Amino acid sequence: EVRFAFQPIDSVKTGEVFAYEALMRPQSDTIQTVSDVIRLSRVHSKMPQLESLTWTGALQEFRLQKEAFGEAKLFINSMPNINLSKKTRDFIYTTYHDDLYRVVLEIIESEQTDSDCMALKQRAIHAWGGEIALDDFGTGYSTETAMLALQPNYVKLDMAMIRDIDKDIARQTMVKHFADYSRSQHIRSIAEGVETQEEMRTVVRLGVDYIQGYYLAKPELEVKDIPLEKKQQLRQAYREFVNGET
Hints:
Blueprint: E1 2-11, E2 17-26, H1 34-43, H2 47-64, H3 66-69, E3 73-78, H4 86-96, E4 103-107, H5 115-127, E5 131-137, H6 144-150, E6 154-157, H7 159-162, H8 169-184, E7 188-191, H9 197-206, E8 210-211, H10 228-242
Parallel strand pairs: 2-3, 3-4, 4-5, 5-6, 6-7, 7-8
Antiparallel strand pairs: 1-2, 1-8
């Protein structure tokens, strides 16, 4: 009773889709949101099953639409303190081993991370040749401390920092500082929740590496590219950034 939609993550430099994030979409009449699924899983002590469902479901949908993915990576959300069972890890490796290097383990912000649990996740994803992303940076437990502990390949700036950023000098300063610092640490930055052309142009000017949000494309059950018009706008914004134009 769940499916997975895919939202593009676009490269600022090329304007092309770099990755897709798999987002759970309940199909039930009684359980309609991901928040409902998580809440019920917690109440009934089914979080390990939810973690397993997320991975196996996202990878199954990826396999079914692999041609549409092209060379794009696959971001899969993961609870910080819930590990996959050995049985599930073995199943994933046996079934999808040829594609696991394309997987990015996205740690979602919900609670303080247990170091032993996270270490096991890191070993598994690195053994598969995959990468790690820290989600919702700038809120809750997703702070500089978590960034140092996880050593992610990508950090996603929370949409609360991005919303109306074109009108907020203080947030512009924060995002530019973060983008510069991330680049110095060989970590790539992703601006989440970009919903307007002005927000897009601003985060490009501030130096983020990738953009995700409704302005470029909404999550769809069918994997889709972003419209050519949006690619051209993104490329133009990047050219202006490189040339030092406002």
